[in-house]
Amino acid sequence: MGRYRPPAPKSSPYITREGYQSLADELKALWKRRTEVTKALTAAAAEGDRSENAEYIYRKKELRGVDRRIRYLQKRLPDLKVVSQQPSDPTVIFFGAWVTLENPEGAQCCYRIVGADELDPAKGWISMDSPMAKALMKKTIDDEIRVQTPQGHCEYTVMEVRYTPAGD
């Protein structure tokens, strides 16, 4: 008997235009990949005994993973709301903003507030559902924020807010 796990809380339905296009491209690529995997699965199945056929077992598992992701994207994409316009006051932090923060020691870090479907910690993209993004929302330059982290409370000062990438 399995353990009951309550459903995860729903993530925000907001996404940037680039993020939506990326997910749509991924879905298109998955359909092409599924065709290739299906052909390889058919060829592996034709080899005979399926119970000891590693190629067949591997391809079935791969197809299951591709189908799972396709199903997720087909359900998620229609629910997403693309946020493409900037707020009327570009000095206030809202969805899609690049925010530069400074801690009391003087170290700076830059984050972009994006939807849950496009977060990427390596790029500094954080979900708008994260504690850091929630603390940043509706703040302006020189505001101080306090965020609870596993290491304790961290304090930051907002140094810069922009709605275009640094190179633009």
Q: Which overall shape is indicated by the principal axes computed on the Cα atoms?
A: elongated
Structural class of the secondary elements? alpha/beta
N-C termini distance: 55 Å
Q: Total helix count?
A: 3
* Main pleated-sheet profile: 5 strands, mixed
Sheet with most strands: strand arrangement? 5-4-3-7-6
Helix and strand string, N-terminal first?
EHHEEEEHEE
Which percent bin holds the helix content? 25-40%
Radius of gyration, taken over Cα atoms and rounded to an integer in Å: 22 Å
The beta-strand count equals 7
Identify low-pLDDT runs: none
- How much β-strand is present in the residues? 15-25%
| Averaged pLDDT | 91
Helix and strand layout, with pairings?
Layout: E1 14-16, H1 17-45, H2 54-76, E2 81-83, E3 98-102, E4 108-114, E5 125-127, H3 131-136, E6 144-149, E7 152-162
Parallel strand pairs: 1-2, 4-5
Antiparallel strand pairs: 3-4, 3-7, 6-7
Helix pairs in contact: 1-2
